[in-house]
Structures are given as structure tokens and as C-alpha cells.
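Task: fold both queries, return C-alpha cells.
Query 1:
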Amino acid sequence: MAPFTRLVRFLAKNGKVYYGDAILPPGVSDIAKITHARVIQGDIFGNYREVRLLLAPLAKEDIKTVRCLGLNYEQHAKETNMPKPKYPVLFYKPATAITGPTDPIPVPLPAQEAPGLDYECELVAVIGREARDVSTADALDHVLGYAVGNDVSHREWQLRRGGGQWALGKGFNGWAPFGPGITSSRLLRDPQRLDIYTKLNGQTVQASSTADMIFGVAETIAFLSQGTTLVPGDVIFTGTPKGVGAGRKPPLWLKDGDVVEVGLDGVGSITNKVEFVKSTAKL
């Protein structure tokens, strides 16, 4: 792929889907405010296109794995009354969980059976160069760039109905929206100095910094690459800060119609509406 500053995947006014480099007004870093992009893939004649709709920054066929970390912010570990992990807590989401920056969050009927639907703002790192047995010092050289994502979770399915595995309560279709684009690692050189937040229906419910990570991005990539090859297109959700619904008294669970915005310095924000799926049973 050609060099870029802020990679986006978008539906243009002509009805075609392109990869492009976001064109933003002077002084603006929020990719969600894009109106035009320079095409870098999808049209060999390039030029510029007007953006009608931002899509997930990577097409599903370009995503290799979706790795996620749990309990990776110190204050979040404290609010859950769980011990600070000695090693990164890893789980996976299926690629079908990936959606775009404005797509709805569909909640299937099984996830409507009990309360527990939760939000988690997260820095998302995308691998751009193959990495195996890399050192912490060299790990960031393998990063394509960064996005922000929402690790949508259902605590009942994650902790009680999942058989001890977290993935079931975090892997429903559409439960990993991310975007609004991918800011190049050449532009964001230090991922550990970024403010990150969640707003629920316009009210701030998470506000922290990636400096609170237990395992920083470089340390995470180095750890995950030991004996395992990370390849271009691997997506890594790096954990959430304090303020999740499960950590509040009383708990704050997402409801049908709620609007969730998550944002990250230097990247921008994504906004997704919770939509409870209606019964599809046929008589």
C-alpha cells in the first residue's frame, strides 16, 4: 500500500469503495471530520474523492486476526477488584465482530436475556510489517498505525456463560467497531501519551490516558511476537481504562438506542448506536 498519513476506507459519492489518505482542514486531527480523501488504492488513477461514508479502516479480507488484551490499565484492574496481571491477558475476537465508525452495535437475542452490556474504549494498533521474536525497542517499527475501538462486551456472557473464556461475551457480530481511520505510526510516534475517552449519550463515562497501560504497545507487541509471527493486517485492541459500566455502583449497562462515542488523541472518534435485534422467528 502507498504511504499515507491517515488511512481511511470509505464509500465515495460515486458509489465505489476506496482506500484513501484523509484530507483534513488545518489544525484538525479528528479523522471523523473528513470530507475528502486522496485515493491510494482502488483506483490506479488516484485523484481525489468526496467521502460519503467512512467504513471500517480495513476490509475484512485484509484483517488477519483480532487480538485483544484484558485488564491492561492499572486503574481498570483496581475497579474490577482483580489483581494486576503479570503477563498480558490475551483473547481473540472473530473478524465478523469488526465494523465501522458509524455502524450500529447489533445486540442479538441471547445478549438481551440478561443485563450486562458494556462499553470499552481502546487504542487499536494495526501491524504493518511481519514481526516475530521482536524486542520491545524495535516493536513499534512493525506498527502500521493506530485507531480507536470499542470492545463491546456482555459481562453475563463473558464471565458466567462463557465457560471461563471471555471471547463468547465479546465476539458477537459487530462488537468491535473501530476507526475512524488509521493514523500512521510516523505521525503518532508515542502511543503512550494519548488521552482516551468514552461518552454515553453525550456524557463522559471514561476519561484516561494510555500512560496508565500496564503493558504498553511496544511491550505488548514484543510479548505477542515471541514464537508467534504477527503479520500485516493483524489488529490489536490494547485494553480499556477505568470507568466501564461493570465497575460502577450501581452498574451502568447499555440499553437499546444508546449512543456510544469513543475517542483517542491524534486519531479522532467513532460513534455507534446500540440496536437490539428484534425476533426473526417465523410462524
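Query 1 returned. Query 2:
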Amino acid sequence: MVEERSKETSPACLQYEEILTKRRTYLAKRRLSTALSHIRSTSPPVNFTIRFSPYQLYPEAPKDGEDKYEWYKRSKYNDSEDRMRMYTTLMSAYGAKEDIDFKFGGAVANTLDAHRLIQHFQEKSGPECADKIVNSLYKQYFEEERHPSNEDTLLRAALEAGIEEKEARAFIADENEGLMEVKMLIREQASNGVDAVPYIVVEGKRRDFTLEGAKEVQEYIKILEQVIKESK
């Protein structure tokens, strides 16, 4: 969710449903950030605050995880090495355009603990903190082939977001803290009809805009500008 405020517009918001193990969510996040930077550079300046909502495509994924490359090849491409190679080539090209160096090794695993971390510190420390956590998690998982939600990954993301190490370690170690709240939020997204990601809802003063999939930067800019125009 992104709340938009300026001296000449009323508040609007943009909801960003994210999943931490799908490359197109990273592309959408990077392109959305580029669009927001453009909007913030306009005159008069408009400030947006991103807020994230959790979503899991594979809630039954094991916590320890399994080989990412082999999982994608088996579950998405029927064990076809040729199709998997085409996918990695295509996604690498998409990533390069956004300065993302996609890697395809490491583990695919359950991301519930990562969502716990994001939501807890989004509420406690604010959306900017959550944004930094998400940026770190995406980079670690997609570019550095790290586990998406083990203790080391989560701790690094928290520290890079400016959270004190003692506080971060205590929260990560308590696997029940914030768990029910995150599960309720995930169920809420499903009840709202969300069944794929990235899923972005811009709630304007006059109407809402929904963007599914990773759009190009200019399309995000167009929608944000329309929301600002209609909020005056």
C-alpha cells in the first residue's frame, strides 16, 4: 500500500500485494520505485509511502526448502531443460534492464517468517523500514541465492533496515510473534479475490485502479499521475 500526500492533493493509497519468491514481483517493485521517483521529482512534489500486504502462492512449501532450479524446472516446465533455459534467459534479460542480476540457484522455501518480519516492523517502525526489508530480501533471494526466510537472511534484512540487532534477533527467534496477524492478512487477500502477484491497487479519491502483473514504468507513472489529477 502506498499513501500519497501533497499540498494540492487529498490522500490516496496504493496497495502492493507481494510474494517473496516470484521474480516478477521484484521486477514490479523495481519499476514501481522508478515510477515513484519520477513522480516525486515533479513540481509540486508528491510524496508516496509504500505499504506491503502479504500473500503466499505456495503456502505448503517446506520451511527448509528444496533446490530452486530443479523445483522450477519440475513444477513449471515439466522437467524440460530447454524450456527452463529459455525461462532463465528471458528473466535475465528482463532483470538486466532494471539493474537486477537474477540468479537461479539456492532454495525455494516457505516465506511465512519473512512476511512476519515485514509486517511486524511495518507496523512498529513504519513503511520506510518495511520497504528496506523487502529490498534486502529480494536482493538476497533473487541475486545472491540465499534462503528466503532463514534466520541469517531475516537478520541481515532487519539490520540493513536499521533495526537494532538485539530487537531483530528476539523477534526472529519468537516464531509465534505476529504469526496469527500475518495469517489473517493472507486470508484477507484471498477473500478479496487476489490469486496472483504482483497485484497493485491504487485507491484514488474518485476511483480505484488495479494493476496485475509486472507493468512497464510508464504505465505505473500514468496511473499515479491520474490518481493525483483526480485527487485535486
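Both queries returned. Flag for query 2: The radius of gyration is 18 Å.
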